[in-house]
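Aggregate trends can hide what the representation actually does to any particular protein. For completeness, the protein is quoted in full, as a sequence line and a line of structure tokens.
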Amino acid sequence: MTEPDTSTAAATDAVCELAPADRAVQGLTPAADAGPRADCVLCGEPTEYPADHAGSALCAVCTWQQAQRIACAG
């Protein structure tokens, strides 16, 4: 039997640096003074888009579900 290779153990111990929690969701949450938000056209939940956004606004969950439906339709 051969001994396990320990040279790769150091490489697997390396972990990517994560952004602090307050910066991780910075782009996903609207600013407090951003004004009214558009409602999702599928579920009615508020979206990240302003109320005067042109087109049909979808929340993040409905956007993800719609992408899954499109990906599986092919």
Observations:
- The two ends are 49 Å apart (CA to CA).
- The helical segments are 9-13, 21-24, 60-73.
- The longest helix spans residues 60-73.
- DSSP finds three helices and two strands in the chain.
